Amino acid sequence: xxxxxxxxxxVFGVGLLVSVLTLNVSAEVAxxxxxxxxxxxxxxxxxxxYLGNQKSFSDGNxxxxxxQQGDAGEEFSTKLLxxxxxxxxxxxxxxxxxxxxxxxxSISTSSxxxxxxxxxxxxxxxxxxxEVDASIKVILLQ
Length: 142
Fold this sequence. Notes:
By secondary structure, the protein is an alpha/beta fold. It has five helices and five strands. Helix content is 42%, strand content 17%. It comes from Shewanella polaris.
């Protein structure tokens, strides 16, 4: 009886340790635009832009939508769009196939997105908040 109790305690302790060690530490994600972009963009507009329901900023300029692959993209999809990255890809596959739009341009690094946003006044992108600098303007932190 005592041995079973100890075995259960050890199993519980190991399980708890594994759970703690595998916790996903979420990164803060910044939605960024070119500093010259004076458009009003709220959380709903960001969602609509990334889901293809809105194709331009409030000033009428078409948005060049950039999506960062990896942790920042996963965090953005999960928290803001309320869907996993695979659900986001499936959503866009369906929209593309039905002719309802083109998905955001997929970019692999924050530095590439920063360069593209800094050089294009109509670009909007998501990056890890730690990567923000003066070359871009943050419109939303998530």
